[in-house]
Amino acid sequence: MPVRVPTPVRGGRCEVTAQESYRVVDSTAPQFVGDLKGSSVGAFIAADVGGTFARLGLARGEQGMAEIVGQRRYACAEFPSLAAVLRRFGEELQAEGLGAPPVSAVVAIAGVLQGDILLNSNLPWAVSLPETRVGAGLDQLELINDFQALAWALPQVSQTQMTALHGPGIGLADLPALLLGPGTGLGAALLVSDPSGYRVLPSEAGHASLTAGNPLEMGILQGLQQQFAHVDAERILSGTGLMTLYRALCDRAGAAPRWQLPAELVAAADAGDDPLAQECLDVFCGWLGSFTGDLAITFCAKSVYLAGGIAGHITHYLARGGFMQRFLEKGVLAPALRQVPVFCIDHGWLGVIGAAAWHQANGLRFTAT
């Protein structure tokens, strides 16, 4: 099953067509596909590792093209390290009779690499680049930011993977394109035009200080500042942040929290029998809209895409209007933001695809022993 890596985009726009979009086989129950026996030369692992799940695919690339021929999803909490996840994937490849495990890997992972150590507060284990490479039995290993990888895959997102929150449906994505994702944490990246096509600017905007836009948010923020030395955006605008917000609203209402997980909270709000759950999602969407508008102004974004596990589960709440109202409440720049289309995207395996695209565009740098 051939899978294309994004071709360079000229100027300030990038084409997004169904024909060029990536496809994976059975993303809800990943399985190996294709006959790879005797064809593992040039193969590498393309992976997307978040705070909850790790998605891995076996990819092969040549002449600017990439083919992803197999994929697996693992729960991070079930493994003692990233190396163990990579090693398990290689072992399963071999057990399936698909040849020796690849010795090269590109891993899109939540966090930022500081020297050889990954800085991240949402993974279940610490990550060292050299220790992971050796532990996984790899000769080459690159770690890139997970939203950097998603941005690399962004030009391949098809119309069927997008829900418009603002602006008409389009087949061309204006650049710069802002990608923002409330999931286990809060990821962000920017896709910009480049003389040779396009490039991706990674970001840790989710760790910027959280700001308040109304008295309710100010009260919640002041309460958080009494608990934490630094209150960043993902303290509220993430999966765990959604539950932090819910508990804060319960405290203000003098009510005991009824829900412990985001899925439970969303289900209760959908059922319509828990006003606090509904209020929580409304406040969350408004706060996220304000933060997203701030970033769109900061980067002069001409299109905005929301990804991440939480965004995918609350698209119907994002579409109710509170998100876009706060997105547009930027004073004199509101008319400019009205020209910016905003979409939710179902990213699924796009992180794996983006890791493969990064590999094709940049190549693996050999990591010495």
SSE string: EEEEHEEEHEHEEEEEHHHHEHHHHEH
| Cα end-to-end separation | 35 Å
The CATH top-level class label of the largest domain: Alpha Beta
Largest sheet: 6 strands, mixed
Can you name the CATH architecture of the largest domain?
A: 3-Layer(aba) Sandwich
* Gyration radius, in Å: 21 Å
What's the β-strand tally?
15
- Please give the count of helices: 12
Structural class, from secondary structure content?
alpha/beta
**Number of domains in the coordinates?**
2
Major sheet strand order: 9-15-14-11-12-13
Shape: globular
Helix content: 25-40%
- Mean pLDDT score, rounded? 81
Q: Kindly estimate the percentage of residues that lie in beta strands according to DSSP.
A: 15-25%
Uncertain regions: pLDDT < 50 for 5+ in a row?
A: 1-41, 365-369
Tell me the CATH topology of the largest domain. Answer: Hexokinase, domain 1
Structure overview:
This protein has 369 residues and is of the alpha/beta class. It folds into 2 domains: 13-152 and 349-362, 2-Layer Sandwich (Nucleotidyltransferase, domain 5); 158-345, Hexokinase, domain 1 (3-Layer(aba) Sandwich). Helix content is 33%, strand content 24%. It has helices at 82-95, 129-135, 146-153, 215-225, 239-253, 262-271, 275-298, 309-313, 315-318, 322-328, 334-337, 350-362, and strands spanning 13-15, 43-49, 53-62, 65-75, 104-109, 112-114, 117-119, 140-145, 162-166, 172-174, 177-182, 186-194, 197-203, 303-306, 342-345. The strands form 4 sheets. The protein has a 6-stranded mixed β-sheet, sandwiched between helices. Strand 6 (112-114) and strand 7 form a beta hairpin. It is globular and about 60 Å long. The two termini are 35 Å apart. The model is unreliable at 1-41 and 365-369 (pLDDT under 50).
